[in-house]
User: Fold these one by one.
Assistant:
Number 1:
Amino acid sequence: MNEIEFRKRLYTNPLEVSQELLAAAGADPALQKILDQTRELETEIVALVNAVEAPSGLADKLMAITDTASTETELQNLGDVASKPAANNNFFQYYAIAASLLLALGVTFSLTFDSGPSSTEIAVGDDVLRHLYLDGFEIDEVNNELNTTIFGLPAINAVMAESGTRLVSNDLLQNLAIRSAKPCEVMPAFQSAHLIFEGTQGAVSVIVINNRPVSIEYSFHDERFNGIVVPMGEGNMVLVGENNEDLEQYKTLFADNIDWVI
Amino acid sequence: MDEIPILQGNTKKQRYESLVAAVYQDVYRYAFWLCKNQPMAEDLVQETFLRAWRSLESLQNDKAAKAWLFTILRRENARQYERYRPELVDIDGQSIAETDDNEPDSKMDRQLLHNAINRLESDYREPLLLQVIGGFSGKEIADILGLNNNAVMTRLFRARGKLKVEFGLDTVEIED
């Protein structure tokens, strides 16, 4: 066995070495030296990496998740807002960011308590707006009547499959002209689909995210757009239209016609 | 890695608690090496286990529970990184965990090794950490990272090759 091949096989896992490699090292002092050095370094790596210990109390916090999450579910079932964890818990350390977003975006909650969505959840609306401004030419095309495409159900569902969803009924399309349907990267780690149709005040975007970063419905707006983030099924749906667009009618229409297929 | 069932009990809560007890240390270690920051690692682990609790019923193979958790953690780390773009941390200044050997020279070497691991590109560091911390096989690492087995082997080879060069055990990186 030549040295390169020996190294290639040794380096993939120095502490689990085949008999063949051991035999090769036994027959060649140079290879034996490589084996010994590599194993010594690996022992140091293992010791160092695994010397990191979880902070005291972390296990208790993780166990307590069952109680907190159960409480959230019960409160949501009652139509109330889930309570937030203790204020000094680092799990929600980004409330300072949330406060500034609230001021900048004008976030409102359709909830009875003031705890509302977390900073992580609020940031989803921020991400969507940023995405629309970066990718806004299609919205402008619809608003300027430059896009006359109408997507049919098969083409729409081919795109929505990316987000693990599908439109289950053609009825929705009788009332709405879907001008654009494409995969979306508003949250790069998760598959999403972005539909654009003509609302009454301009283009309306429907973004379906194959994940559930938001557990509480809330609305948001800036100088131009207003939006709703809706937890539904296995993920989230975000509707965004011009500021004077009433999105509630579309929320119900899409929520009733979208199925999760994963 | 031996496929040892780590979920025990009949109720969802019992199964979740047995999962926490069995793997939370390894999950935290991996989070720490990803985040290079203890508070962020703790937050990441809590978010990971929260998602695990909520979707525990979707785990189809109990024996793959650890790999499942690590996959959730990586997704959460990616999502949080995209959202918050944390401030760059002076990784060379991060304190390292103590080991039993407290000789000054050994401590310096551990700091050098700690820094060297952190300086590896993530493509090489992550498979290495998954193998060392999680004890995952090449196939399991491939599944977690969305790669094929050959790619994982190549990255492990390169990771260790780079570390050996950094510590003067090899003069040049061996080309794959």
Number 2:
Amino acid sequence: MSAPIAAERRWTAKLAPWSLTVALLAGAWALNTVALPDGSSEASFATRTTIGEPAATRNLELTVTDVRAARTLTDPQGWSAGGEKAQGTWLVVDLDAAATQSQYAATLGFAELTIGERTFGATERGETFFRQRLVTGVPRSGSLAFELPDDVIKGTALQGTATLRLSIPSDVRYDGIIEIPIPMEELPVEESIVLAETGWTRG
Amino acid sequence: MTIPQPPHPEPAPSAAEQPAGWWRTNRLPLLALLVLIPVVGIGVGWNEWHYAYGYGARKVNAVVAPDKGTLDLNGATWGPVRSGEIVEVGDFDMPADTRLLAAVIPVEPEAAAVACAAPVLVQQSTGREWTPMRSEIGIPFDDDEPSTCISDLADEDDPNSAVPYSLVVAFVVPEDVEGPFWVEVDPIGDDRFVRFSIDP
């Protein structure tokens, strides 16, 4: 009677570590599958909208009214550096923006354009709406400009998919941002663009 | 051969001899926890609060000025505030559907000059805030209309001879925003701040 019991014990004793190994591997795989990417714990809270549609997040409300592209850029003052024109490939975003709750520290402090894997910040040259003051409940208008590398231009149009991300704080971790997809293929590259003057939104 | 006598049952232990319960045994540590947990909670909370709001770096405690009256705070006398809506805005670059509200706040330092940030307009019902506008509506800078505290002295060699002056500020608010408002001035280096109630 004792021999079959001993054999059974040996068999279960071998099975236990193997099944535990399989269970742990399966658990690790499941955990790895459902885990969010690195940095997710401090990710921004994105509000998605489209060109022409108003959106709001936290203390910011804005509408992107137009997106244009050009080889040459001029600001309303004729560029600050002695009237010289800026050569390159430029994406220009016209927008209306206001603070919703408080004017304290309310400037458009974050403006980034992501094309594929690359991210570009709004230019600080010339007179643009970047880092301009926002007023509670009273929209102001202006332009943002992004200088792009030549490989995003193909023939007479831009290519690739782009996402524009805007917010008030320059550090947008844990904070709200507004995300706008930009249809690049539909953007003809004009020869020259004059940036919109920064000021109160009219009509 | 006889059957041995089974042992007698032991007498039941009296109440005093019963082993003490877990709660009773651990009453001293439990009492310590009862004291320590709230103390740690309050201590950590206070430390975090003090880190964020202490040292007079932010305005925390409002001191409301009496109606049409003055207030002594942080080495100066503030008020009485004058306020109103500026109706004649023809020369200004005003956005559509807005009102221009102006406030004048006399400041009389007791001896040395005081420092303060620009006044803020707060809608009392919602807490929405506005900061002063000037160049945005096409009004150039003017020495006689400071928006933050200044440190002009009557006698250049005497730092305790600060002269009185008035803060002059204007706020652009949407037309549908109704009062009453607070006008708040935050003297630097104090967690208290001056609050005037206005309803222009």
